[in-house]
Amino acid sequence: MIATQLPALQIIIPLFAAPLIVLARRSELAWIIALVANFLCVLVAWDLFQLVNEQGIIRYSLGGWAAPTGIEYFVDTVNAPLLLLVSSISAIVVAYAYHSVKKSIDSTKHYLFYAAWMLCLSGLLGMLITGDAFNVFVFLEISSLSTYMLIAFGNDRRALTASFRYLVLGSIGASFILIGIGFLYAATGSLNMLDLAQRIPNASSERAILVAFSFISIGLMIKSAIFPLHAWLANAYHFAPISVTAFLAGTATKVSLYVLLRFLFSVFGTQYNFEYLLLNVILLPAAVFGFLIMSVVAIFQTDLRRMLAYSSVAQIGYIVAGISLATQAGITAGYAHIINHALIKTALFMSVGCIIYRLGHAHRPSLDNLIQTMPLTCVAFIVSGLGLIGVPFTGGFISKFTLISASMEKGWWVMGGLVLVSSVLAIIYIGRVVDVMLFRKQRLPNPMPQGRNEAPLSMLVPMYVLIGLSLYLGVYGSETLTVSGEAAKQLLGGFR
Amino acid sequence: MNTILGLYNYWMVIILMMAGLYILIARYNLIKKIIGLSVFQTSIFYLYITMGKVEGGTAPILTGDPATYSNPVVHVLILTAIVVGVATTAVALALIVRIHETYDTIEDDEIKAIEMLEEDS
């Protein structure tokens, strides 16, 4: 009974948790409801993941209305791993958030914070699971609106303007997607993704499809912060509460990238010429310039959050580079990097959160000799930083290695080389932080008391769980690659 | 002639869409920006509704008399999109209120000037 309703439960659990939290009001209770709901989500996602591996595609008709008419939830090897990834990251960060939220947000507003978080989670999971093009837009807006709210919770008043600017850009992006879906509907008369994939090749007007394709791609490029449409990201990540940043860095842009993948390969299919135009002429240069320029920009940031935000745009560049190869190996690399980067970047932001929790800032030059006072946090930062660079036995190595070998395979030697150059840049910006943390002698009289001053255990444990997870996927990299390979096969094969 | 009058609705969509985007980009006042955003979104609603209109079609009500009817799906979709648009505007206006409280201005260029001054501690 429950097993057949799993796809709906995946969305309903966080969606119902949000009003429950508002009713509960007390901040501890709100946190507990959020945590429990989130872990239930992880369980559901895990079950779905297993089911998809055993039985293949799951199609679920919402309300019993059959597919092309009704809304359909569609779980296959592409979105099942991401459902698991997004719900797990959210669960771990909610567990982590308790102390950091308590310290930085007014206690009368905690329940609103967690309610918005749950709405954001259900929006993100909805974007992943739905098989209906218009439904993607609705869930996108659910997650975006709650994201604007979460960002505005930041302590600095610039969080408000960051949130506002993201709202303006995000709404334009979402509206573009809406226009695109409208043209698709006009050209084919369907909104169901599987149905669309079958009807698009026979559509009467190729120009309408091209317009739809362009609008949807640009909208999703804004939402997934692909260079040069990343302008909203740096401020939003910088000024949002750090737990929100950790959550968004691991999930929001990745989910938009998934929708982009879905539309590019599953819905529009690879037979279209303009697709290759987009991939090779637009996405590829955007990706390459993205990971080079943004890595350089990251070097010169003094605030850790800002540095990691720019590094996020650079890492999205790797993912897009993999996608734009449009080969089995390329998409496998891009997909694997979605998983690895989500885990690594979330862990990095969590360690920055621990620093902010104790010091009240994340200003790089004032982190002198931090290893003395916060050894565990520093180790966490360094280990995840190595993952970001792509040192062997970390997740980052697996996906970057696959990306480079994929570009070699296609004969794009230059791109493979540029990925290496950008990795060297990552060594520089992570290295500068590590240098200050480990070796710099104390110059300023430290306002913090001497001796151990570690972040609370409730922050450290979730952070190390996440780091353990990413190290596990680094050592047993073949598992990530198997999952990604399956996803790539499904994407390139179209809906089956 | 037919391309101008016959596609009247679509021309209006384009004009509204461009006007909305222009306001959004060119105005510094945050409220005006949101007005631009709303105009932009409204133009998309027109686009959808126009798309569903069938010439000579009636409302899709089951009367037993099989008449031509307009496509009802787009209306349903746009009902959802209108709700989303209202929610976006509401969140944006709430943010503007907070911005006004903390910055004492809602002019984007003045806010940028203030932000330049408090570049990080």
Order of helices and strands of chain A: HHEEHHHHHHHHHHHHHHHHH
Subunit arrangement of the protein: heterodimer
Gyration radius of chain B, in Å: 21 Å
Main sheet makeup of chain B: none
Write a compact overview of the structure shown:
The complex is a heterodimer of chains A (496) and B (121). Chain A has 496 residues and is mostly helical.
Describe this structure in words.
The complex is a heterodimer of chains A (496) and B (121). With 496 residues, chain A is an all-alpha fold. Chain A has a domain at 291-496. Chain A contains 19 helices and two strands. Chain A has helices at residues 6-24, 27-55, 79-104, 110-129, 133-152, 158-188, 193-199, 206-223, 231-239, 242-267, 273-299, 304-325, 328-359, 370-373, 375-389, 395-409, 413-438, 457-475, 477-492, and strands spanning 58-61, 72-75. In chain A, strands 1-2 form a two-stranded antiparallel sheet. The longest helix of chain A is centred in the last third of the chain and has 32 residues, at 328-359. Chain A is globular and about 70 Å long. The two termini of chain A are 26 Å apart. The relative contact order of chain A is 0.09. By secondary structure, chain B is mostly helical. Chain B has one domain (2-54, 68-117): Helix Hairpins. The model of chain B has no long low-confidence stretch (mean pLDDT 87). Chain A binds chain B through residues 134, 137-138, 141, 145, 148-149, 152, 157-158, 160-161, 163-164, 167-168, 171-172, 174-175, 178-179, 182, 185-186, 191, 302-303, 361, 363, and chain B through 21, 24, 30, 33, 37, 40-41, 44, 47-48, 51, 73-74, 77, 80-81, 84, 87-88, 91-92, 95-96, 98-99, 102-103, 111, 115, 118, 120-121.
